[in-house]
Design goal:
Length: 405
């Protein structure tokens, strides 16, 4: 069925846009008119841009918050006993993101033709993750798709919040370091060369060694700035290229867990992802071994993923999950203790979610404390660096005054 992209106005004069599927353009206009939308522009998506006609929309990405909102809307409609096809139709017309709207409309067509919902979602791997698809599949098989979708929405929102916390915590130190680097570059390129001209006007002035070192550094920066910035860019480029290689990523993951201040926070984030994802999957009816296969890719750390692989191997041989996790040495004692209690009481899923909530709170506090610590440290380093530069410049200035007098 053709998919149309439209722009229009509601009765209140609010601008709206989205996608709608219908037999033809006339039927699409009639459907929008029935929804009290005055059509300003409507076009068949396949004819929008000839250059993108064969572009695989399955490679497009969608924001986590948009996906969570769509999932919650779909869960609400299904819970109200609205058939899946009708619910998907309504959601595809409601979402503001055209990429997500097109994907949902396409999934609706596939479901309408008899394809399972989970299979239709797998056509868009960059929008719907393995966790998402596995949960939907479990919901379809168990007949509790509305409950599973609501849990998926909560899980997706929690993951988005965790990412936002990490990103916001890194913003302030990066800004401070950038400002410091810019200020030092200004001093070395513009201020110090002018001071050198003043010093050279008095040949009898003997410059101390630290001032000579500063002047030489400034001269090098002015004459060979392309080497400095090029070398810095090359180092950064080589570092990220090294991180992309399998061996480099494995080594960096191991190093990141051992860093003095950031290491504990990295481990907390990985543990929070592990517990929340595993708890959500088990709550959704996904078998333990299949859930562990998915979770290992979510933690985004090779060392933790290896520990999960070893745990999965032992569990497949009949062992409990707490023992292998404890032997790995990668999971905090409180996590092992809670998992052990959950297994004994049959409440493993709820225990994992509780641990995830606790670790999300710890991650927030840890990141806040790191941010509050980094601020003063960067300011002190910046102050000391600028102070040494001022000291190296002012001492010869005093000497010039003495000589002149």
């Amino acid at each position: 069925m053709p998919i149309f992209e439209y722009k229009g106005l509601t009765r209140d004069g609010k601008n709206v846009k989205g996608v709608i599927d219908s037999e033809n353009l006339r039927a699409a206009r009639a459907k929008l008119k029935k929804d009290n939308i005055f059509v300003v522009d409507i076009r068949d998506k396949k004819k929008l841009d000839p250059r993108k006609k064969n572009a695989p929309r399955a490679t497009a990405k969608v924001g986590v918050k948009e996906l969570a909102l769509m999932t919650r809307q779909l869960a609400t409609l299904i819970k109200a006993n609205i058939p899946l096809v009708d619910a998907l139709t309504a959601v595809s017309e409601q979402v503001e993101n055209p990429v997500l709207g097109e994907a949902i409309a396409d999934c609706k067509n596939m479901v309408n033709e008899g394809s399972p919902f989970a299979k239709s979602l797998s056509k868009y791997p960059n929008i719907f993750t393995k966790i998402y698809i596995s949960m939907v599949e479990a919901g379809e098989m168990s007949g509790s798709l509305d409950v599973i979708l609501m849990r998926l929405a909560e899980f997706t929102e929690a993951q988005a919040d965790l990412r936002a916390k990490v990103s916001s915590a890194m913003t302030y130190p990066i800004i401070m370091l950038t400002v410091t680097g810019g200020l030092l570059a200004f001093l070395f390129v513009f201020l110090i060369p002018k001071m050198v001209t003043v010093f050279e006007s008095m040949p009898e002035l003997v410059l101390p060694w630290y001032t000579i070192a500063l002047v030489n550094a400034s001269v090098f920066m002015v004459n060979y700035w392309y080497i400095v910035f090029g070398g810095l860019g090359l180092v950064i480029f080589m570092f990220f290229n090294w991180k992309k290689t399998p061996a480099g990523k494995d080594q960096w993951d191991a190093i990141s867990l051992k860093l003095p201040v950031a290491g504990p926070a990295v481990r907390m984030v990985a543990v929070a992802r592990f517990t929340r994802t595993l708890g959500t999957l088990l709550n959704g009816g996904v078998p333990m071994l299949a859930a562990l296969d998915i979770v290992r890719n979510v933690v985004d750390n090779h060392v933790i993923a290896q520990a999960i692989d070893e745990a999965r191997s032992n569990i497949s041989e009949g062992e409990s999950i707490a023992g292998p996790l404890k032997r790995s040495g990668q999971f905090p004692p409180i996590v092992i203790h809670m998992v052990n209690i959950g297994e004994k009481t049959g409440e493993l899923e709820n225990m994992l979610v509780q641990v995830a909530d606790a670790y999300d709170f710890q991650v927030k506090n840890k990141l806040e404390s790191m941010t509050s610590l980094m601020g003063p440290v960067v300011i002190v380093i910046m102050g000391l660096t600028i102070g040494m530069i001022v000291f190296a410049v002012m001492i010869p200035m005093f000497e010039m005054t003495n000589i002149a007098s």
